[in-house]
Fold this protein.
Amino acid sequence: MPFAARAAMRAAVVLAALATAPAVSAQQYERPPSFEIGKIRSFWPSGDNYTINNPVRSDGLLRTYTLTTPHGEFVAHGDQMLRMRVNELAALYELEKIANSESYGKALLDAGLSPLRYTGRLITDPGKTVGDTFSGIGTMFGRITADIANAGKTPGDPISGLLGVTDHKRKLAAKFGVDPYTDFPPLDARLSRLAEAAAAGGLTVSAAMFAVPVGTVGMIFSNISTASSIEGVRIDELARDQTAAQIFDLNREKLLAMGAEYELIDALLANRSYTPIDMAVLVAALDSLGGVEDRLVFLQRAVKIDTRSLAYFMRRHAEMLKNHQTRGAGFARFVLLGGYPFNVTRGGRIVGAMPIDALAWTPTISAVLRDSAADARRLAKNGQVELRITGTATALAKKELQALGWRVAENSRF
């Protein structure tokens, strides 16, 4: 065959390979699946003040929900965060009943207040409320000491705390099982306005506010009621009775006991992606894993989080580990795989128990899990990992993970 003919044939083969390369590559990955909200278990497509839009998309790990509400559209990343938001919306619905009730409006008038005054503006007559805020001199100095020690780290307005507004806000939030430091703007605004009115109106307004009958329809998940506790105090009691600064002090004490250095502790407490309650739950969950070594691995990953959705994921991951350990998981230590914390059991198995909704084999997820698999092989000869997820995995994801020596356990208990 002449040289020119052979060269043309080689060029044709190369061009054919290049032309087919994208198709071969595309078969190795997949687009994250979409879902119909009506077919996702545990959730109602709509409630008194929200509708979840279709389709529900995902990113390869978590589903992304868009909720249409009277206050605008909001996005919730993941099943766990959706549960939190739905509960917050149910609480907001009930709080608006209180604000619009006849008995509450009458109480405002009886206290010499205008029902139209409380639209988010802080009260300006602190005289009596400062005296009523503190139950005793010891409590007062305890709070002041905690506030000074955590200056600049806690959320909220110090003046609101001095006037007693934050006390009322915490108690009101606890009544509905929501985080008093919520990042959900409509709920935060309504809690603040009612708390300001209660602080200004004293017992007359406060009693009327708490006396209004409320329902619990739609509240599928309490944001502050967990099995965890700090120093024997349940998280819901902590949220109701302790200031953010006092909670930070408790967190600091527990983190020091885990061996965390002051720099790491300060960075964790100053990380506003977590609410004080998030951090308290995370710390309490890790504290319960007292026999598990290298808990700092989890904390060092947690401190790097810079988005609210990922911070909430870390909180729920810590809670899931606590729950699995209580049920006999046998975790012995934390290890990093692909830069993320996994666990090694007392029997030497590597386990990742995580609140993942919908695992798909996307290019990004594939790269992370391949890196994780390489780290697993360095830790154990066979490199086998059991990945326990609360949701499901696609057929391709399970096939590719099996090729890496991983086993996926779907619909794992939280």
User: Anything to note?
Assistant: The mean pLDDT is 84. The radius of gyration is 26 Å. The longest strand covers residues 63-69.
